[in-house]
Amino acid sequence: MFPEPLQTRIVEIGQKITVNQFAQDVLNGLSSEDKFLSSKYFYDETGSKLFEEIMKLPEYYLTNSEWDIFKRHKKDLLDKLNGESFQLVDLGAGDAQKTMVLLDHFYAQIADFNYVPIDINKNVLEELEVLLNKELPGLSTIPVVAEYFDALEWIGQNQKGRKLVLFMGSNIGNFNKEGAKAFLCEMHRALNKGDLLLIGFDLKKDPRKILNAYDDSKGVTAQFNLNLLQRINNELGGNFNIENWKHYASYHPVSGAVESFLISQSKQEVFITDLDKMFFFEKFEAIHTEYSYKYSIQEIEEISNACRFEIVENYYSSDKGFVDSIWSVL
Predict the structure, then answer these.
(1) pLDDT higher than threshold 50 for residue 7
(2) Which of 53, 66, 133, 187 has most Cβ atoms within 10 angstroms of its Cβ?
(3) What is this structure's pTM?
(4) How far is 235 from 17, CA to CA, in rounded Å?
């Protein structure tokens, strides 16, 4: 039997991203010799909707790769829980389009689980909760607005049962290789022995295919990056002229790094009211906005071993270009 439907509730915990924090991070990034803005600020309401568009683009193969994996392996994934009750923890849940493949199957099998979508965007979680109440009535859903580790600590203290944690879509690629190792080792400390982590890795492949995914023909990815400047205008009183900036992406096939930049098209000055500071940009000066690292299977094995996980199984997409790796906490 499914539990009784929960009253609508969203848990907000930990240190939320405040205007002051946003302002400080923008000040630090634009004051640096090599200017940068953190990719975590992509996801305001406009940015989240743009990313939903990106996931539907034909060039952005990552979404379809993971859908393919989930459709073919959803039964096996549930079998790995051995009929135990569990928490399905979705890190960076967004609109949960891909997760719905798993939710539909687990729900149909009357699995004993709670769904815990985690995101820093409360609006996205509110929309998701409405959708789930309609599509999967009675599903026990506990949305959490938080940074990842604040949320995992809260789950450990307040929700019993084994955990299956989803970290999908090659989100691990947003860290450089050392940062990814630090993140996953911290993830190990936040989980318990026997918990499972499903983590998506985009694999190294034809550089042209990778680059097209981050520089699409419709320019949606460019809008997604440029929205960072618009967000500064809207929330911090900046006067960026968006027309004076262009998006540029590159891929390095040895390191596996896709990097995204915003390139100044002229020598210009930008004043940000909340920082009471003028920033100067030379023509063709770059602001770094994102990393997206690609991996080899050997690199995946090395990082799992370094953080004391055991690889249970690798689920490959049909074209072998993407893998959802299932790790168990040792």
Answers:
(1) no
(2) 66
(3) 0.88
(4) 13
